[in-house]
Amino acid sequence: MFDFKLQSQKNHETGNVQSNWKQKNNDSLISGSFNTQIYFHEDQVNFSLLNLNLLILNKPWKLNENSNGWYNNYSFGVNDFKLKNQNQEIYINGIYSQQTKDTLLIKLHQIDLNNLNPYLKNYTVTLSGNLNSVFKINSKNTIPIINSNSNIESLSINKTLLGTLLIELKFNDNINAYESI
Known about the structure:
Layout: E1 2-11, E2 14-23, E3 30-40, E4 45-56, E5 59-63, E6 68-72, E7 75-85, E8 88-96, E9 104-112, H1 117-120, E10 127-140, E11 143-157, E12 160-172, E13 177-180
Antiparallel strand pairs: 1-2, 2-3, 3-4, 4-5, 4-6, 5-7, 6-7, 7-8, 8-9, 9-10, 10-11, 11-12, 12-13
């Protein structure tokens, strides 16, 4: 069960949204707060994340100070969204729209798979290893197309070391399907 609070305020062409949340048990997997400034324009909404405090498994994740973005009909953009905990990093930058030239980039760097184990405890599965991925997302005829390269270093499932897992997901325009997984 979550304790969730949300406050918002709008003045003419700007707004502010603040929120905080926390699980109500001792096993709190995630908690945090954020504050964002929103700017309303005739055909677009811009936002700037002013502050984000995020605890995942009681470990603090920090957001870089320049994270911002925008949304309008059929497209959105994110500029330098970087969330970091020690050597783990989630990075998002770019544009997703109906234009095939626009690309949204998502990078996962040294994500510790042990972070997933509290969510998997009901399935009697434990994971370990470090995930590195690059996802490039764009649109073809309004359908999201995802191309990615991922690897998990030192992958272990239930304490059995499997080694390095490489995953490539590539869309082939000629056959209109994914060709490698």
